[in-house]
Design goal:
It is a single chain. By secondary structure, the protein is of the alpha+beta class. Helices cover 24% and strands 20% of the residues. It contains five helices and nine strands. It is globular, with a radius of gyration of 19 Å. The relative contact order is 0.15.
């Protein structure tokens, strides 16, 4: 279990994961929770700042969104990165960095509109090109991602994975900083749900 106080930035979450590893090596995580608070509970610290206490099992195998394999890694990545879409409380699809999306009449093209205020922890804006780069990296054979098949519905994805076409041939584009366009081989109504997977996260 680890605790993250205040703003949940990437640096804080990575430091929390490292603290978890050190605690395990030192002899376990006995009594790491607060009285009356279980795993995943939140409360207020002495200074009034927010506290998130969360159990996560073994150490993550990687915190690279396109290379991570384990559930433990995916749990952290969902906190560190925000995809085009996210998972709603009921398990459905919710907005992520994309606040709206629409399919073409034939169902083979999806257009995602990004919220302009989205920022990386460095303060740099999150732009459409970051998502294009992440999706291309996911199917790039040199990445060897275990989740490349997640976006196999996107045009040319299988050809890129097998090395028959370059990553730049993947059917994703960024006509401007706040628009991501995805071309599909066939209608794929569940595409927004697929794009909530951590492996489809942006690269900066």
């Amino acid at each position: 279990m680890f605790e993250v106080r205040g703003r949940l930035t990437r640096r804080r979450l990575l430091a929390a994961a490292a603290s978890t590893s050190a605690a395990l090596l030192a002899g376990g995580l006995a009594a790491c929770g607060r009285t009356g608070q279980g795993s995943g509970a939140s409360g207020a610290g002495a200074s009034g700042e927010a506290i998130l206490a969360r159990g996560n099992g073994p150490d993550p195998d990687s915190l690279d969104p396109q290379k991570a394999r384990t559930v433990e890694a995916q749990n952290i990545l969902r906190d560190v990165f925000e995809g085009l879409t996210s998972v709603a409380r009921d398990g459905g699809v919710a907005a992520g960095v994309a606040t709206a999306w629409a399919a073409s009449p034939d169902g083979r093209t999806y257009t995602f509109r990004l919220r302009p205020e989205a920022r990386w922890s460095s303060g740099d804006p999150v732009v459409a090109a970051d998502f294009v780069a992440g999706l291309r990296r996911l199917v790039d054979p040199t990445t060897a991602s275990p989740y490349a098949q997640v976006i196999e519905a996107i045009s040319n994805a299988q050809e890129v994975v097998t090395g028959r076409k370059p990553p730049s041939a993947l059917g994703v584009s960024a006509p401007d900083d706040h628009t991501v366009v995805v071309a599909l081989d066939a209608p794929t109504p569940y595409l927004p749900a697929l794009l909530s997977h951590p492996s489809t996260g942006p690269v900066h």
